[in-house]
Amino acid sequence: GPSTTLEAAGVQNGDMLRLAEKTADEIAAGLASLQKHTTSCGRTFSRRVIDADNSCMFNCVGVALENGRLDMSEELRAIVASIMMSDPVEYNEAVLGKENEAYCTWIMQKDSW
């Protein structure tokens, strides 16, 4: 309820919070794993559980940028690979931990991270 603390809501050190004003109906219609909490001043925040499936960073970006979409990891991996491939001098083995081409091939695999 309105007096729930972050600790009681299950928020832990290192968790990412995304604050956005939404109606209760928007949140309820949102996503099954979305947890809604309301502050004492009436603001609402949500905590979304993302599967630890080696695409969790890409899924978090998709959720944040595309209104809750969890199906963007392949597209976002392709964007990363494209950027890395476009500048192999900047994104070299010292930066990536492997040769540019090998990194780009690796990052495109859904089980990589």
User: Distance between termini?
Assistant: 37 Å
Residue-averaged pLDDT = 82
Coarse structural class: alpha+beta
Percent range of helical residues: 25-40%
User: What amount of the residues lies in strands?
Assistant: 5-15%
Number of DSSP strand runs:
3
Overall geometry comes to elongated
Sheet with the most strands: spatial strand order? 1-3-2
Stretches with pLDDT under 50, minimum 5 residues: none
Largest sheet: 3 strands, antiparallel
SSE order, as H and E? EHEEHHHH
Structure in words:
- The chain has 113 residues and is of the alpha+beta class.
- Helix content is 36%, strand content 11%.
- It has five helices and three strands.
- It has helices at residues 24-28, 56-65, 73-86, 93-96, 100-107, and strands at 18-19, 34-38, 44-48.
- A three-stranded antiparallel sheet has the order 1-3-2, with no helix packed on it.
- The longest helix has 14 residues, at 73-86.
- It starts with 17 loop residues before the first strand and ends in a 6-residue tail after the last helix.
- The mean pLDDT is 82.
